[in-house]
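_Backbone structure tokens_
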Amino acid sequence: MLLSSLATGTRMPSKLPLQILIVDPDISAAQITRAIVARATPDAQITIEPDAQRACRELARIQPDVLIIDPSPSLIAGLQLIAAVKGRHAGQVIVVASAPTAELRRRMHTLGTDLYLEKPTPLSIERLRSLLTGAHG
């Protein structure tokens, strides 16, 4: 069970839809990710934000249970966003890297990301559904 709702005291995960934030500057990739996520969890509230810096500023309002991010294009802002979601909101983080490197993989492991993938990735609906269902408690 995710602790974000309990820590803030604002919502109960079992009663409200899963909040998912997709951060990817490639709008086409973000829309494809949204379609896959929507198919896996039809009741999820999905927000797309192409800019990691803006997503950092909007984090308190969005309060995602799950962050799906490509941190490669804006690495510093992406790292800050991942750290905030893992720390303050205790949400799950799925990284889908468009420019993977050994250093990026190391940093994502250090930050405690829940799933690290590299584009293009054959993410199955069943695998995603299993991960997202676990995020909702």
